[in-house]
Amino acid sequence: MRQRIFSGIQPSGNLHLGNYLGAIANWVAMQDEFDSIFCVVDMHAITVSQDPVALRQKTIEIAKIYLASGIDPQKSALFVQSHIPEHAELCWILNTIAKVPELEKMTQFKDKSQKNGRESAGVGLFDYPVLMAADILLYNTQTVPVGHDQVQHIELARTLGKRFNNKFGETFIIPDYFMKEESKLIMALDDPTKKMSKSAKSEYSYIALSDSEEIIRKKIKKAVTDSGSEIVYHDDKPALKNLINIYALLSHKTTAEIETMYVGKGYGAFKSDLAEVVVDFLKPLQEKMASISDEQVLEILRVGAEKVRPLARKKLEEVKEKIGFVI
Ligand code: ATP
Ligand code: LTN
Predict the structure, then answer these.
(1) What's 8's domain CATH number?
(2) CATH code for the domain of 275
(3) Dihedral (CA of 293, 294, 299, 300) sign
(4) Does residue 184 carry a catalytic annotation?
(5) Which ligand is nearest to the Cα of residue 249, counting in written order?
(6) Which neighbouring-strand residues pair with 144?
(7) Residue 105 designated active-site
(8) N or C: which end of the chain has fewer CB within 10 A?
(9) 166 ligand 1 Cβ < 6 A
(10) Is 0.90 surpassed by the pTM of this model?
């Protein structure tokens, strides 16, 4: 039996190279070997305010990005979270064993609730990690491929899975996370101490997968670099290290090969080549996205939901029976 992987992305904001390299690229590489389920997590997206028209468009766009990146709907199940209500039902049940202080210490909650003032933070935002635990545990997931920022959430899923098993008997598989060392955290172009993020204030902090050639060149030109002029991959030069990382991951070269290529050349030559690498990577992805119709995507998402629905139903029945609900 192949191991199961599950992962998801929220249909909010513009997907960027960090999302692609930290998450989607790994999913594509894993789908041949693993029984793969990939979700567009719209119920997570509404934990912060969303415009309904934009949310619907983004949900379809994220699915197009999955497909254009190489997620094959014949190999993997691809669906929208809200199409499977069992996620919300299991979330409610897990809410009864999750503890308030466990959720209060979540970094993402602390960050996001601070943005508009703690008093206006929604209960959904607070409960976000429990819904994520439900997503994962519902499908007997063994491995969750995500970027480094999600580790704390996966740990909570492990805690809740174990707690439920201890209280009601073996029910859930306890999941592990997976990330590639080089891509686990792609940093912001304007500040290498922060992760590249779609909710960043400045658009110069990330390269969106939808950016035009001109914008990409502009953003890379403006990206901060460290003192000195040599192209070296070193912790002392975090800004350059991040740029070399992006170059290496997109061009499938090693960081050592890149260092060798730029001996005696300065930041200018390196940056202009990096812009080329990013443009060459994103252009075909954007063209592929444009060639997929909304109707095609909706059909793929419908089929995906039908594939996973029996798994979700079966697990939820088992849970309901264990906790004493009359079925
Ligand atoms: P936000 O900044 O609004 O919280 P985000 O850009 O972090 O959003 P998510 O939807 O939270 O995006 O993340 C989707 C996936 O991309 C997750 O697996 C996450 O770990 C990964 N990811 C996000 N940012 C990065 C990054 N800078 N480097 C590597 N992986 C990332
Ligand atoms: N919180 C995740 C998105 C997400 C997820 C999941 C990822 C929701 N449910 C289950 C993996 C498995 C994020 O990337 N922001």
Answers:
(1) 3.40.50.620
(2) 1.10.240.10
(3) positive
(4) no
(5) 1
(6) 177
(7) no
(8) N
(9) no
(10) yes
